[in-house]
Amino acid sequence: MKNTDATYLGLTQEELKWFFQLNIFGRLINNPNRPDHTFKDDKHIKRYFNNYAGRLTSNTPDRNGYALVRVLTDRKRVGYRYMVVWFLMHGWLPPQDYQIIHVDGDKLNDFPSNLAMTPVANPTPLSTIQPLTPPKGMHIYAANTKTNLQGLR
Length: 153
Known about the structure:
Structural class: alpha+beta
Distance between the termini: 47 Å
Shape: globular
Number of helices: 4
Radius of gyration: 17 Å
Largest sheet: 2 strands, antiparallel
Helix content: 10-25%
Strand content: 15-25%
């Protein structure tokens, strides 16, 4: 079922890690350790490390409501942020007859625990989908808010 020879945006999982990584909260960031060989020239290296390295990727939705990411190397590549998150987490893409959905219905919520794979022909109702748990060693914590603390009193 898994496509282990998969690429997304023409890049393998290891190559995609040159450009992006998940931070400790499960958010996609621009890789702060991006290798120099992935840049066209020194001008682009300086611009990247001054403006993008280690920062969250854009949250601006496209016309369909999904956030996009851009990979600039020899050519510009544009893809969906949720697909990059899935690919980084699992190393494979869903088979052709499956799709990745956002469990809570929010197309900008690309936390790994909010992404699930369902069949295209017979999608599972969102209310019955169990989100994937983070991999061993990765923890996602809720913010301490008054609402969260009220139950502790």
